[in-house]
Amino acid sequence: MVNAMGAKTFLAAALAALSWTGMSAAQAPTPGTLETYKDWTIGCDNRNRCEAVALLPEGGEWPDNPVMVGVSRDAGPDAEAEVWVSRDAKGDGDVSFIVDGRRLATARTRNGDATVRGPQAAALVIAMARGNQMELRAGNRLLGRPSLAGSGAALRYMDARQGRAGTSTALVATGPLGPLAVRAAPPAPVIKRAPVPAGGAPVALWREERTALGTFTGCTEDMREAEPPQLYRLSKTETLILVPCGSGAYNFTTIPVIATGIAGRRAFHFAPFDYKPGWSEEEAKPMLVNAGWVPEKSELSSFAKGRGIGDCGGSETYVWDGSRFRLTEATSMGECRGAWHWIRTWSARVSD
């Protein structure tokens, strides 16, 4: 568990991440931000898909078998709300949703997760927004009591962001207007993936190249104590290098570099991104956290945890388009209060 100062440090880094861009604001992705209302936090992505998640009360103890509950809804007049539950204790079985003593819905869990849809979900969401106490039960066994404090305000925010306020489709801010008054979901950005060529692994760095790479990235000391840099084929003339540059108990940072030229005389430059990854602090120097590379998808990822149990942090997933890494998905959880399901704040569609 982290102390309050650790949580504040994470939040400061997350806010700094939102302000960085290596491109003009008109071209760069703009992931959504999160809002917190008492014990609920909510965020929406660039397509106005919104998700609200219950948090542990301020100062609350981490339960032995934590349970999360949330409400998600796509944009558009025909989209319906869904209520989901996620249990740390995995397993299958029925879970009942009870608000102020009324059993409003039951769903079947798979590996601890379940989703309520349709009329049951609509009735449940309204009751949650107006209710005082919620219980999740498996038969007569109590699984948890997610807080409802702030749920009504969070769902009202969802109505406003999706342009539903004043319409019959709103969850809280209902009005006389019909579904046709609700704006459609914005189109998803489309990114064309550049395939990574097949072939053997790139030639390992020569000693002189390792020295030059350490100087270029400023990671010389960290490179001495870490595993060697990881090299991956990116194109016929380019190699992606993930350079180790510091580590903690649960976050491992790397600098992504692209190398060109023949082995022994390769030139280096920082990998270009359309949106700053990880916890990068310098505009020209990207930094990934707990980096992952999937060559079959030309996909690079960063996953930064705010504390070890993973109930806050941020992630970014990118695809290589032949000239830079393009953001395809971002998630965030700014409150270190028991929510291991992070909220999506950006999404794009990838084409081949």
Written overview of the protein:
The chain folds into 2 domains: 156 residues, Invasion associated locus B (IalB) protein (Immunoglobulin-like), CATH 2.60.40.1880; 161 residues, no CATH class. The chain has 5 helices and 22 strands. Strands 1-2-3-4-5-8 form a 6-stranded antiparallel β-sheet. Strands 12, 13, 14, 15 and 16 form a 5-stranded antiparallel β-sheet that branches. A hairpin with a 2-residue loop joins strand 6 and strand 7. It is elongated, with a radius of gyration of 23 Å.
List the helices and strands and how they pair.
Blueprint: H1 4-19, E1 34-37, E2 40-44, E3 50-54, E4 67-73, E5 82-87, E6 93-99, E7 102-109, E8 113-116, H2 118-130, E9 134-138, E10 141-144, H3 151-161, E11 190-192, H4 207-217, H5 220-225, E12 230-233, E13 238-247, E14 252-260, E15 267-270, E16 288-289, E17 292-294, E18 299-305, E19 313-320, E20 325-333, E21 343-347, E22 349-351
Parallel strand pairs: 11-22
Antiparallel strand pairs: 1-2, 2-3, 3-4, 4-5, 5-8, 6-7, 6-9, 9-10, 12-13, 13-14, 14-15, 14-16, 17-18, 18-19, 19-20, 20-21
Could you say how many structural domains there are in total? 2
Q: Report the count of strand segments.
A: 22
Low-confidence segments: 1-26
Structural class: alpha+beta
Shape: elongated
> H/E series, N to C?
HEEEEEEEEHEEHEHHEEEEEEEEEEE
Keywords: Signal
Organism: Sphingobium lactosutens DS20
Signal peptide: 1-28
Protein name: DUF1176 domain-containing protein
